[in-house]
């Protein structure tokens, strides 16, 4: 079996990548790199400098995004057998008049915990607030990954909200596999409640430098804790992975009821 796309077929470097005897990465240069760059650009992966033939930071970012969207592991900036095979298939479809298939939505599960209090007026910076946030995610049936962060952004009121484990659909689950160090924007809208039965809408936007952000959304009517927050809870932060003993939220109790 060999590469199928006329763009790639017969290129000795790309055929070597396909065979597993060569791996393309920084700082490689040449016509084979240019072909990979142009294919990525045509498929919608941004390389602002264009197909220059030099495998540097922009190309690395595009390759990582391509691999994440295809669930290829490890999602590193290296073009090996799996990457060139997937790229060959996608560009063959595109050149044949058939767009590559959109990512299939994946069933996932999530849970969050938020605790904060403040008198800061949102968007003004006046006042004082502090909040602690934890979130857990996994593909349905997979292993949990948990993250935490703190914020002092605007919060008017007080809340401790713990959601149950809740199912949701993710269009790009591969982008959610590892979020340690990820920049996120979190929005939580909750009803006013005490102890149990709180309604909460959760949204977390995961930013990246490679393309469109990935968004996690789910809602629950069974949150525990309490909330007297006025308006939505919104903050930006960088996620840090939780210690091993906290990675599985089903093994921990965060509220005493």
From TrEMBL:
State the organism of origin: Agrococcus pavilionensis RW1
- Per its UniProt entry, which superkingdom is the organism in? Bacteria
Peptidoglycan binding-like domain location: 29-87
Its taxonomic path starts at: Bacteria, Bacillati, Actinomycetota, Actinomycetes, Micrococcales
Record protein name field: Peptidoglycan binding-like domain-containing protein
């Amino acid at each position: 079996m060999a590469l199928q796309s006329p763009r790639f077929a017969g290129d000795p470097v790309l055929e070597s990548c396909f065979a597993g005897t060569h791996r393309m990465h920084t700082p490689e240069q040449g016509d084979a790199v240019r072909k990979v760059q142009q294919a990525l650009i045509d498929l919608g992966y941004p390389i602002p400098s264009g197909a220059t033939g030099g495998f540097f930071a922009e190309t690395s970012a595009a390759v990582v995004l391509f691999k994440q969207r295809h669930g290829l592991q490890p999602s590193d900036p290296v073009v090996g057998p799996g990457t060139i095979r997937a790229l060959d298939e996608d560009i063959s479809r595109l050149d044949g008049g058939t767009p590559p298939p959109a990512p299939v939505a994946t069933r996932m599960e999530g849970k969050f915990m938020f605790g904060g209090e403040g008198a800061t007026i949102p968007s003004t910076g006046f006042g004082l607030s502090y909040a602690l946030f934890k979130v857990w995610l996994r593909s349905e049936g997979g292993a949990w990954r948990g993250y935490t962060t703190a914020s002092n952004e605007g919060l008017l009121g007080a809340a401790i909200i713990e959601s149950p484990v809740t199912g949701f659909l993710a269009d790009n689950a591969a982008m959610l596999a590892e979020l340690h160090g990820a920049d996120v924007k979190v929005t939580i809208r909750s009803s006013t409640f005490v102890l149990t039965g709180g309604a909460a809408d959760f949204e977390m936007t995961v930013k990246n430098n490679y393309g469109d952000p990935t968004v996690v959304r789910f809602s629950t009517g069974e949150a525990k804790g309490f909330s007297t927050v006025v308006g939505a809870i919104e903050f930006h932060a960088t996620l840090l992975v939780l210690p091993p003993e906290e990675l599985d939220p089903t093994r921990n109790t965060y509220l005493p009821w």
